[in-house]
Structure formats: C-alpha cells, structure tokens
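Hey,
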Amino acid sequence: MAPTSHSSLPLLPLRHGVVFPGTSVPLPVGREKSVALARSVSAGDLVVLAVQRDSQTGDPGIADLLPVAVLASVKKVIRPRGGFFHVIVDAKRRVELESMTAARPFWRADVAEIDETRTSGPEVTILATTLVERLRKESASMTDELQKRLAAANPERQPGAVADLVAAALGLSSDKEASLLLELDVEARLRRTHELFAEAKNLAELKSKIDKQVHQELAKNQRDALLRQQLEAIRKELGEGGDSSPADDLRTRLESRELPEAVREVALRELGRLESMGPS
C-alpha cells in the first residue's frame, strides 16, 4: 500500500536544532515568510518542520532541507507586542519531504508518511527501558512535562518514541540531533542515543570539573592578592635601613613580628623570589 501523503502543507524551516516527535516546543519565528506562516495558521493546523542543512541560508529550497522532516500540529500562536512571533507545536511523527509546492507568501510542501524499521525481539525493549532508567537516574533537570511524556511512552510498544524523547532532553548539537532524526532504524537510533547520552554525561562532568578548577584558581588568586596587599602594608610599616640587603633586613624584621601564618607564608615566598633575583 502506498504511503499516506499530505499535500501542500505549511512548511517552517528550522535554522538550528531538531524538534523531535513526541515533544511540544515554542518556536520563535522572525523571517518574513515564517511570520507570514505564523499569521495564517491557528490551533489544530498541521505544519511541517524541516531542518536546514545550513543555518545561514535565508530562503531555503528543497535541496537545502533534510529529506526527513517532522509533522506537527499547532497548539497556539503567540502574537507579540514588538517581539518575535512564537508558534507552539506538538511534534507528531517523521515524514518524508517530497517537494516544495510554494514559496510565497510562505513555504509549502508535499510530504509522505515514513515507516520506521523495527527489529523484533526483546533487545529493542531493553535498550529503550534502560535509556529511560538512565535519564531518570542521571538527569536532575527533567521537567514535569518530560516525565509525563516518558511515562506515556511504552518502551515495548514505542521504543522509537523513547529514543526521541531522551534525545530531545540531552541538549545535543544540531548535527547530532539531525543524525538521530534521519535514523529510521529504531534499534540503531536507540544504540546511538545511548552513545550520545554517555558523551553528554562525560562532557557535563568535564565541564563541572573545569568550572571547579577555575573557581578554585580564582579564589586562590584573590586570596594571594589580598595577602600581597597585607605584605605590602607590612613592608611599609617595617621600612628599610641597615647595611644588610633589603631581603635580609626584611626577613629579620618579619621573623621578629607575630604574623598570621598565611601572611607569613606568602611573605616568605615573596622574599624567596626577591633573593633569587640578586642584584641587577
């Protein structure tokens, strides 16, 4: 049986990222044609969300869009008072982008339904189930909406939907999201999502480690700067004099004073640098 087709639906090209099936998102629109689309649609209308190959393309044609798009329904159009229009959509399922039928006043396209490939057996269900468990265990930023949608997605009956929901929550780069959108083999998509999940976790841990090191270094630099200011004040109080070298004289004077241990440590370190320099 021939796949179901949808003729001349409004098409919204996406410059950045992917709207995965099963998600609901607000899409800001600013291009003239996108604004024209936002003005013409209303709640319940179907639209096609197509990903641009190059975000810099201002007026994309069919060759500038990925061949797999997403069919979505409009939930609401927010009309601004001086800002961007926002079209809130519920993404439904993948479709094949067949042709662009109009470019004025906004883009329109013909699309056809796509059948995903699913291998029979328990392995796909296990992959989907463990993916949900990993997200619940390791992601502290799961929204109530995501939790609700994951609960509704049955890993046994809808493993592909599980992969899409988890992928949408990972904050992946546009290229990686596009690769998952294009993957029609459910098992392969689940395995790739597991891999990207691990990568995202490692990157988050590395970022956290670097942030901690930077904060520690900043705190140390601020502490040393404060102690150097205290040292400078001590130098001014002790003054200069005598026939000995400035470093020897300052060391003698420091040793005769009661100072906080941290201040003494920095002072002696600075003295060591002064003594190592020698006369010019």
